[in-house]
Design goal:
The chain has 493 residues and is α/β, with parallel strands linked by helices. It contains 14 helices and 19 strands. It folds into two domains: 266 residues, Aldehyde Dehydrogenase, Chain A, domain 1 (3-Layer(aba) Sandwich); 185 residues, 3-Layer(aba) Sandwich (Aldehyde Dehydrogenase, Chain A, domain 2), CATH 3.40.309.
Length: 493
Amino acid sequence: MQCLNYIDGRWVPARSGAVMESRNPADWRELVATAPQSDAADVDAAVAAARRAYRSWRLVPAPVRAESVRRIGELLLERKAELAQLMTREMGKPLEETRGDVQEGIDCAFYYAGEGRRLFGQTTPSELGNKFAMTVRVPIGVCGLITPWNFPIAIPCWKSLPALVCGNAIAFKPARDTPACATLLTQIFEAAGLPAGVVNLVHGTGEAVGRALAEHPGIDLISLTGSSQTGAEVGATCGRTHKRVCLEMGGKNAQIVMEDADLDLALEGALWGAFGTTGQRCTATSRLILHRDIKAEFVSKLIELTGNLRLGSGLDPQTDVGPLINQAQRDRVIRYLDIARDEGAKLAIGGEVAREDDLQYGCFFQPTILDGVTPDMRVAREEIFGPVVSAIAVDSFDRAIQVLNDTPYGLSSSVYTRDVNRAFQAMRDLEAGITYINGPTIGAEVHLPFGGVKQTGNGHREAGSAALDVFSDWKTVYVDFSGQLQRAQIDNR
């Protein structure tokens, strides 16, 4: 597949003519796509187009803008199987998961299509007579959207669809690992009838295209999903250039399992949370905080279940765990396992590159459990983003909460217990944007806010009605029908 940039309603190569490759992480012999390796000149063109389109798009009534978003949802539904197949080839996760990724985009489209008729403001009494006061939502302007490869349809939809309903224009920079998915999504946007320039797609690296977007004076808001390090750099740039910025960054999520938990249910949650999407989710379960009374039994059973997981191409319906996204990510996992051994952690299962048969041609790594991990170890505190989970023993529920909170991150958290008092204490005391009771750390729903605290985010939320606060601004309106000057903010009582 040959991908191109989409700027001002036209499909064009990078101005430099440079290209980059996207290869199947399950079999690097397969070239999935080529894409433009764009630079600041391409960003300039995309932003200029978006600024022109914004002037008219913001004046389209919100319910009419939402009709375009509804059509996007219908087209995603029609092409769900095609998108899922392409996504599995391009980023590796099994078809069951890629179909879910597309379905999340569909759900998002239909949800925000409804929000087009619910961009509610407020009316409130004025303190003065014959005066009316209200608030309304207005668009921000041109939004730079920087998205990752692990959810190459869902996350761009999370960002773009509320932005469009709110009346913004978009410059979209997808991950360099998933240009084909971004291209097909943008083709769907085009087919939905969005005016030229409202959505612009610019392929390239974060160092070139992402940086150019963050620094561009024509961009009013940056929405980034990425690492905490990248988020810190983008946040600093946006602060210096007076841009709005929404950051969804790293996680070090934990599942607590208490001695009174349903262990079979908790095991299912741990297996899915740790190894779903090959551990490449920002909400993946990276730590298991286990009460000492059940720890040995739990780890033993989890080792057995993990040993039965089948690695392979996500196109194979028998596959449980697909490849890591690329060689660099596999090298990162290997480095962290070396660190774990040096720090004294015990390798319970896995820990090796999977090279048997056809796996040798992809970036496969065995699902891995580390035992004997203590809260101060780097593998218990730093994001690995791979199929590695650490088991940590605790003696009490209070200690479990303390250990869960003791990281720089705060995205998702999980507690398995039959004690309703513990459940409500966890809801109150866990320092995370998301808390699951008797469920794994993964499984967001589009109508609920998504995001975290500490180094996971900067206070904003994606998805749900909370996203409208990212992509719109508040305007306060006063209407004085007294026919005379009424002076406010002085002592007129």
